[in-house]
């Protein structure tokens, strides 16, 4: 499970966060969306079959902040046997698929979220975040998640996450703008030279007339 925060502010906590939940089918994305939003608007089922058919977005307020939660269709949303080897391959390929979809830089905007914290008991996984969707009334885990996302925002300098395609578009726009600026600067220089030459011609004529 992964969480992306793409609404940012360099100096303080952003007033609005957008969290996109990504992961394999049946891992509890919809249940997690309900826990974060404090609602039951997302249809959930911990069965292996995918519940979410299309992306769903719901907004809520948590600790006086607007939180936009987006539940997505499960990765590898096709029938796959329960073979343990294939499961391991799926786990690794899911991470690769996320990076392929959102670009290599997406790792800086990604957090692993364990959705069945009650099954992990006292295992030490400090580098990640544990969520217990059976304790939906426990808002402290939601607050803790938001604090980690805020830290991730700060670590990324408040910049929004951009897909590879989006970054390419922005780079191309920047190159086009730089080219336009160079063109205008060149035209201004030519115009300036033209004015100087006209002035020199007038001065030259003035000297010849004065000498005759």
TrEMBL record:
PANTHER family: GTPASE IMAP FAMILY MEMBER 2-LIKE-RELATED, GTPASE, IMAP FAMILY MEMBER-RELATED. The keyword Nucleotide-binding applies. It comes from the Eukaryota. Residues 153-212 are annotated as: Disordered. The keyword Transcription does not apply. InterPro entries: G_AIG1, GIMA/IAN/Toc, P-loop_NTPase. This is AIG1-type G domain-containing protein. Keywords: GTP-binding, Nucleotide-binding. Residues 17-90 form the AIG1-type G domain.
């Amino acid at each position: 499970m992964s969480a992306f925060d793409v609404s940012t502010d360099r100096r303080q906590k952003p007033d609005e966060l957008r969290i996109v939940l990504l992961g394999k089918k049946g891992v509890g994305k919809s249940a997690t969306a309900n826990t974060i939003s404090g609602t039951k608007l997302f249809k959930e089922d911990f069965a292996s079959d995918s519940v979410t058919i299309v992306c769903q977005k719901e907004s809520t307020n948590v600790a006086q902040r607007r939180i936009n939660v987006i539940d997505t269709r499960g990765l590898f949303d096709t029938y796959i046997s329960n073979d343990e080897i294939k499961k391991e391959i799926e786990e690794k390929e899911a991470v690769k698929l996320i990076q392929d979809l959102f670009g290599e830089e997406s790792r800086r905007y990604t957090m692993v979220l364990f959705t069945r914290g009650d099954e992990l008991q006292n295992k030490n996984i400090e580098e990640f975040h544990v969520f217990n969707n059976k304790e939906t009334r426990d808002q402290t885990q939601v607050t803790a998640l938001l604090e980690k996302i805020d830290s991730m925002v700060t670590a990324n300098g408040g910049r929004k996450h951009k897909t590879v395609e989006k970054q390419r578009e922005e780079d191309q726009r920047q190159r086009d703008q730089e080219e336009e600026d160079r063109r205008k600067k060149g035209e201004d220089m030519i115009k300036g030279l033209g004015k100087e030459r006209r002035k020199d011609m007038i001065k030259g004529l003035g000297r010849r007339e004065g000498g005759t």
